[in-house]
């Protein structure tokens, strides 16, 4: 998952281009970036391996169930993060927009 791991949560962007990820250890680096196409591929592959939803409709349904559940505290925060990130990445890709990762 080189593209997923290349971007820090407070200084990165996924671009709707086929590019290699960039992440520098240098403190002077202003921005990490990766390919939005590759990010979506990596998240969908992860989802298939873990039997998680990967299609828009499935993701939205699972997200609604997750957020409407009275047992939200017992549900995995990792699942919510996956659902939000994949859905947002897919929408950004459909709109040909960058996906900024901020805290």
Keywords:
single chain; 103 residues; mainly alpha; three-stranded mixed sheet; 4 helices; 49% helix
Number of strands: 3
- The biggest beta sheet, please? 3 strands, mixed
What's the overall geometry?
globular
Distance between the termini: 21 Å
The portion of residues assigned to helices is 40-55%
Overall structural domain count = 1
Which spans have pLDDT < 50 for at least 5 consecutive residues?
A: none
The radius of gyration is: 14 Å
Q: pLDDT average, as an integer?
A: 83
Strand content: 5-15%
Overall SS class: mainly alpha
Total number of helices: 4
What is the H/E string?
HEEHHHE
Strand order of the largest sheet: 2-1-3
Describe the 3D structure.
- The protein has 103 residues and is mainly alpha-helical.
- The protein has one domain (2-101).
- Helix content is 49%, strand content 11%.
- The protein has four helices and three strands.
- It has helices at 2-6, 36-49, 56-68, 77-94; strands spanning 12-15, 32-35, 99-101.
- A three-stranded mixed beta sheet has the order 2-1-3.
- It is globular.
- The chain starts with a helix and ends with a strand.
